[in-house]
Design the sequence.
């Protein structure tokens, strides 16, 4: 959560025009409610790592793009579009500051098996077990969805103080002629018992702006 504040503090010194441009660029990404019956809440990872069912900070960002505007080669093979979407999230400009921040703190011999460089992140296919900048690990992959565990180093495999799941998904809807891109976040306190979600409202708001930035910078790489 402190990192989210840092990222937006960097942009706080910009002009009013820059701020307006940011929100204009992000206008096509919207947030919709997450159903309590969403499969992410019944997943083995969620149930194991949130044993006391502590409250979550959760959101679902959606961006719809006409299929005619997506690079044709990304639609030729099942699962290719979600891989490219995921690669754009981690290897794109939206994640650049956080990647640099984490590299300064954690990139060394003990984490050399993880993905760190922008090129590695753009080229990866994100198979289960892939570790990203000592902060994310792929725990599930289907032709439509890639889910990573977050909140702490993937070297800590047990219940964590701070934990979460982050899903990148794509639903192709031929009848509507569109692809729907989704970024879903669920954050929670794993240890002990909590009565409130882990993020206060203002940090949650900042996180949502960051999510929009990651969505837009990834999706634009996939378009003609």
Sequence:
């Amino acid at each position: 959560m402190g990192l989210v504040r840092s990222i937006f503090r960097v942009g706080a010194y910009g002009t009013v025009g820059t701020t307006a441009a940011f929100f204009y660029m992000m206008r096509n990404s919207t947030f919709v409610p997450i159903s309590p019956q969403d499969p992410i809440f019944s997943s083995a990872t969620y149930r194991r790592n949130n044993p006391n069912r502590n409250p979550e900070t959760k959101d679902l960002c959606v961006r719809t793009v006409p299929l005619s505007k997506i690079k044709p080669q990304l639609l030729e093979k099942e699962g290719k579009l979600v891989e490219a979407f995921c690669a754009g999230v981690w290897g794109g400009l939206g994640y650049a500051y956080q990647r640099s921040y984490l590299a300064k703190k954690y990139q060394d011999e003990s984490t050399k098996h993880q993905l760190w460089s922008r090129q590695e992140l753009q080229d990866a296919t994100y198979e289960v077990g892939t570790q990203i900048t000592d902060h994310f690990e792929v725990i599930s992959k289907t032709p439509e969805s890639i889910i990573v565990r977050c909140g702490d180093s993937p070297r800590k495999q047990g219940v964590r103080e701070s934990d979460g799941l982050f899903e990148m998904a794509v639903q192709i809807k031929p009848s509507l002629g569109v692809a729907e891109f989704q970024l879903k976040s669920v954050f929670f306190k794993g240890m002990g018992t909590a009565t409130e979600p882990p993020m206060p409202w203002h940090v949650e708001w900042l996180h949502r702006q960051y999510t929009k930035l990651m969505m837009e910078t990834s999706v634009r790489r996939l378009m003609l």
About this structure: Confidence is low (pLDDT under 50) at residues 1-13. The first strand starts at residue 30 and ends at 32. The first helix runs from residue 2 to 11. The chain has one domain: 2-11+30-222.
